[in-house]
Amino acid sequence: MTCSTHKHEASLFFQLPDGQGQAYVFQGISEPPKLINLSLREIPAKSVYEENIRIENWLKKTQRLAVEIEPIKPEKFDASYVIDGKSHIDLGSLEKRDYNLKVSSFKEGQVSAKVTFKNLSSGEFVAYQVNFKFTQPKPQSETTRLSSQVRQLVSHTVLIPNPLPKEVVFTWDSKLPDIIVPPTFHVPPLSTGSCTFNYQPLIIGKNEGTITCFTPELGAFHFPLSLTAKLADLEPEVSFYASLGSSQTKTIRIRSFARQKTDFVIKSSSAQFLHEKSVAAPQSAPNGTELTFEVTFEPTQIGRQKSHISLTSNTGGEYEIPLVSECTPPQPLGPFSLRAKTQIPISFKNVFGETVEFHFATVNSLFTVNKKKEAIKSKKSFSLLVGFEGNPTDDLVTSKLVITRKDMPGIAWEMYLRGSNEKL
Questions:
Q1: pLDDT tens digits for 274-328?
Q2: What is the largest CA-CA distance in the chain?
Q3: Residues in contact with 158: Cβ distance below 8 Å, sequence separation at least 6, in sequence order
């Protein structure tokens, strides 16, 4: 090409047969070369791509071409875009060679740039338009595998670069309910930030998914996860002690991490433990919420046993609490005081799981019962009337009420009685 003040000139002379001649003078101006538009390349964001531009030396001698890269779209590149290469290329006579252009973008979008190869001595040049479409980025890392017992926290830290000369603020997006991420985190300019998230599963099993952090300046960063939730350790053991015919009640506490309101269904492996069918749990605090419920041990057989109680929710998970219980033979009760010619009711409960016929008797004939036997339904109480006839000698009289069942020889419930002729 030529500059506007310089023209190319040439002349042409024709010798005619009659001895005359004709001469022609030519003048020409070369226009700048047209921009060569290269095909659109689709590249995942946050990856490095190399574009090779084939350059041909139009001269029969070696020349050095300076390289200039100018943005077309957008009009100005920020640090989130990288389109770069060497500052020059040397070409031998009529040589063809590839110029390597390194391309990357942190965010999705379409980018175009003009790449000019110019001989600084002659001013001649050739220019190309490169076009890139940055698509959704690939995951930033290989799949991270996290494993934890249910309700236990496992932490993991990811690194995220910020090449911009300003601070950027990231927000998280996670469709994995057991992943706990901060709402936002900041990365200082020209640095790499670290962000820690937690895995706290509530339900046993495996899950896979991707969490994403995003900022308008740098786009999205994707992190694939493979998650495994394992069975938790048992809750602390709870011990119960009661004699046959009596009961013991204790308050049991667990810590719920349910992320929404739910009901835990309560079940026991032994019918000797009585409790509510369920306990309501609110949406838990970040460090969990304490739930309490009462369990009553009402034994039906003598000895030491191990069992457990479980709490289950579709969203809150499962808890298993080991129970150790010991039942001793019936312990005497009383004394129950009576005065002459009166009766008092004494309540007795059938703690067994079926209807049982109990027999009632007193050791001293001065004390009477209104019934000798009674079939009492399971878990129901019966009120027996016990009377005192009085003592002819006016002395204080003691006795026992004995309650038995025929199929349990050697086992009896005893209640001490005390009778007096005087007003008690």
A1: 999 999 999 998 899 999 999 999 999 999 999 999 999 999 999 999 999 999 9
A2: 184
A3: 140, 141, 194, 195, 197, 213, 221, 223
> What is the rounded distance in angstroms from the CA atom of residue 182 to the CA atom of residue 171?
8
Q: In degrees rounded to 5, what are phi and psi of residue 275?
A: -165, 170
Q: At 78, phi and psi to the nearest 5?
A: -100, -175
Pairing of strands 109-118, 96-105: unpaired
Q: In sequence order, which residues have a C-beta less than 8 Å from that of residue 114 and are 6 or more positions away?
A: 35, 69, 70, 71, 72, 127, 128, 129
Residue type, 224: P
Q: How does strand 125-135 pair with strand 36-44?
A: parallel
Give CA angle at 189 (186, 193), nearest 5°. 45
pTM value is 0.72
Q: What is the pLDDT of residues 330-379, one digit of tens each?
A: 999 989 999 999 999 999 999 998 999 999 999 999 999 999 999 999 99
Structural domains in the chain, CATH included, are 36-135 (2.60.40.2310), 144-230 (2.60.40.10), 238-328 (2.60.40.10), 333-420 (2.60.40.10)
How many Cβ atoms sit within 10 Å of the Cβ of residue 116? 16
CA distance between the termini of the chain: 133
In this prediction, residue 6 carries a pLDDT of: 66
Pair 168, 187: CB distance under 8 Å: yes
